[in-house]
Structures are given as structure tokens and as C-alpha cells.
Amino acid sequence: MKFYRPKSVLHLILIGFSLVALPLIVALAIATVSVDRMVSQSQQTLLQSVLVTQGSQMLVETITAMERNARQYQVLGDEVLLEVYQENHDKFIDTLRTLEALDLAEGQHKLLDELRIAEDKIHVALDIYSHDAPEAVATLDGFTGLSQTAQQILNDNRDLISRGAEQIQARAEQVQRTLVLDAVALVPAALLLSILFAFLITRPIRQVDQAIRRLGDGQFLETLVVRGPRDLEQLGERLNWLRNRLLELEQEKTKFLQHMSHELKTPLTAIRESAELMNEQVFGNLNSQQHEIVDILRDNSIQLQKLIEDLLNFSGLRTRTSRQFRDRVKLKTMIEDVLEDHKATLLSRKLDLRPTLQQVSIEGDKEKLRILVDNLVSNAIKYSPDGSPLWVLLSERDKQAVIEVVDSGPGIPEAERERVFEAFFQGAPPADKGRVRGTGLGLSIAREYAQVHGGDITVLDSGKGGARLQIVLPLEQGA
Question: What is the DSSP track for 235-287?
Fold first, then answer.
């Protein structure tokens, strides 16, 4: 299902204002209809009350006139009086039919029926018998009951008018409650629509902001998506174009790093081998000064080789081409091998190595784990003052291997404890200005390798003034 997308933010704002105003318009329409209906019903009630009152009053007056005409006819026997009675009778029947056509209560209709029957008996008697017949005289007493019934209808109608007024009042109160409920329901609806459109308007702006932040953080692999008005979607497309260009530049940089690293590795290998041959005095004995120069040459070539390996490992992480092998790795043995590789540097710096290693085995890539530990140890050696202690700890805790490297250097400021794992980030330089400074990739590669194994690296408070880095790795890898 394809949803309508406005062409611009302005269109979205106009649509939002229209929909927000819609509940208020609905509330106004409901109020108008309710009031109009109440007025119409009140008019109908009032009109019917007037008609019933007039009809009831007419019945009382007609019955009085009929009784007077009938009694005069009974005394005088004049046929003219009988004709006048007949005219009033017809008027009585017309009034009765008018009242029966109205929407009266069931009791009033019953009284009207009684009135019709009683009057019909009198009319028949006067029509059949002579004016002085006993039967005709006897029926004249029925006018008393007719008058009483008509008066009762009139009184009932007055009560009906009072009840109608009460109903109008009750209806007015009901309309008032309805309007209040509509306001309670529709005003929050308008507020909710306002919040919804505020979200719809600000969401694409936030998406653009997040996209720019991801580009700033170097996250080029994930496609940038901006949903909303078409003008902002077009802006998102332009940001994607920029992302692709930055990704191409990143790939070019990675290729350059790989190419230069391989190119540098070949002559460096020759320099290392030559330094080793000279150190072993293959070409003749060396005096103490020559030994010192050869040691400097060898140590710096090893350091340069480490930097080049960091560049190669970083390039492998960027291209994701390195393979992963899952073997049982004895961490204690591996850490001891790493420390043995740094033995010469530890002796030359007179560092007090204090390893505490338990027997722990995990499933993982041995080479990556070796590089992971080596990067932390190299970093600790680089920042440790000469003659200071250096702790390397290995233990098992909650089915996890915990490796800690603690030095006695200047430590890592709290503001930089996350940034030290960013690629190419470098903190304060080591105290020994003569050593080659690193590339800023060691800890970045270490964290990547730790996360590949389902773990992580964090910087903790050492309590001794130096840096304390902790590696936590699960003993078993997931499927």
C-alpha cells in the first residue's frame, strides 16, 4: 500500500493544520445540529400543546352549547333548536377528530373514545325519540358526564404542557452535556493530531540530522533513508550520493593502505634480516657501540613492522576479507608466547612484569586473539615508565575469559575512554620521545577482534594511577 507523501514540508504543515481543525469543525457542526434539533422539537411540543389546549377548550364550550340546545328543545319542542344542536354536534365531531389526529397520550385517547361514545348515545336518543319522551329526557343527564370528561381532558392537557416544558428543559440539559462531552473528546483529538503532525514534520528532519551524524562518524555502509515530504526525500537521496562518494574514497584509502603496507613490508624485512645477521656477528665481531646501534636498528625495525601489521590488519577489517578459524585456544600459553616476544623490550626498559594467569581455554581464532593481546601489551609497554610494574591477568568468570592489562603509566583520561578505540585516535605521546609513535590503530583493531569473538574491551579504573584495560570473551562461540 502506497501512502500519500506531500511534495514539501509546507504541504505537510498545511495538511496538518487542516486535520487539526477538523475535530473542532466537527464539534461545531454537532453543536449546531443538536441545538437545531432541540429547537425543532421544542416548537413541535409547543405547537401540539397549543392545539390540544384549543381543542379541549373547544370541546368544553361545544358540549355546553349542545346541552343548552338540547334542554331548550326538550322544553319547547322547536325543530330549529334541534337543528342548532345538530350544528354544534357536527362541530363537536370535527373537534374530536382533530384531537384524535394529534400525538396524544394513551389515556387522553381513551377519554376521547369515552367522550365520543357518551355523546353518540345522547345524539341517537334525541334523533329517535320525541322531545318530551322519557328516554330523551333521561339522556340529557349524560351531558354532565361529557362536561366532566372534557374538563378532565383540558386539565390533563395543562399537565401535559407542564411535562412538555420539563422535557424541553431536560433536553436542553442533555444537549449541554453532549456539547461538553464532545469538547472533552474532540479537543484532545485535536491535540493528539497536533502531536502526530509535529512528529511527522520533525521526523524527517531528525532522519536528515542522524544521516549527517552517521556520515560524520564514518558509517558509510548503511543506506541512508529519509521518509517524509518529497523535498526532504530528495535531500536524503543527495546524502546517499554523498555517502557513496565517501565510501569510494574510503575504499581508495583502504587500497592505498594495503598497497603501501605491502610495499613497505618487503624492504623492511630485508632491514630486519640484515640487523639480525649483524647482531649475530655473522660478518665479524662488533664492539659495544656497534652492538648498541644494531640493537636500536633491530628494535625500531620490529616496531615499524608492528605498525605495518596494524595497517594490514586494519585494512582487513575494513574490507572484511579476513577468514575466521574456530579452534580451542589455550589463552595462558598464548599470552606467555606474547610476553616472550616482548621479553627484550621488557628487559631493556627494566619493566617489572607481574603475570597472574589461570588455565583458560576458549573457542576462537588463535591469530586474532594473539594480535588482540599483543596490541594491549604493546600499548601498555609503550606508556609505562622505565622500571615500573606491569600486570597481565587471566581468569575465568561466569563462563567468560577475563584478560586484564594494567600499567603504571599516565592512564587514560575519562573523556577519552571511548575515543581510544576509534581508528587513528592517539592520546598523549609516550614519555620516551625516542620511540616511534603508533598509528592509533592498535586498540581499534583489538576491539574489533574482541567483538568478532562475541566479547568486548573496556577501560576501567585501575586504582594505581595507570591504564587498566579489560577484555571479556565468552568461552564458547554461538552457532
Answer: HHHHHHHHHHHHHHHHHHHHHHHHHHHHHHHHHHHHHHHHHHHHHTTTTS---
Residue 477, phi then psi, degrees to nearest 5: -85, 150
CA 383 to chain centre: 48
Contact 102, 129 (CB under 8 A): no
How is residue 140 written as a grid cell? 340529557
- Spatial distance between the Cα atoms of 341 and 474, rounded to a whole number of angstroms: 26
Domains annotated on the chain, with CATH: 9-198 (1.20.120), 221-322 (1.10.287.130), 325-479 (3.30.565.10)
DSSP state of 150: H
CB of 228 closer than 8 Å to CB of 203: yes
The model's pLDDT over 262-294, given as tens digits with 9 standing for 90+, comes to: 666 667 677 767 777 777 777 677 777 877 787
Rounded Cα gap, residues 110 and 106, in angstroms: 6
470: closest CA among 391, 415, 414?
391
Q: Are 246 and 215 in contact (CB under 8 A)?
A: yes
Residue 272: all three cell numbers together: 630486519
3-state class of 160 per DSSP? helix
According to DSSP, residue 103 is labeled: -
Give the mean model confidence (pLDDT) for residues 87-115: 81
Angle at 463 between CA 457 and CA 466, to 5 degrees: 65
* Residue 86: HSE in the Cβ half-sphere, 13 Å Cα cutoff: 9
Which of 107, 81, 111 is CA-nearest to residue 96?
111
Q: In the predicted model, what is the mean pLDDT of the chain?
A: 77
> pLDDT of 292-350, one tens digit each?
787 777 777 777 777 676 666 665 655 544 445 567 889 999 999 988 888 878 887 88
Report helix, strand or coil for 401.
strand
The pTM of the full predicted model, rounded to 2 decimals, is: 0.44
Residue 3 confidence (pLDDT) above 70: no
The CA–CA distances, whole Å, from 341 to 298, 337, 338, 365, 440 equal: 14, 6, 5, 19, 21
* pLDDT at position 322: 43
**Cα-atom radius of gyration of the chain, to the nearest Å?**
53
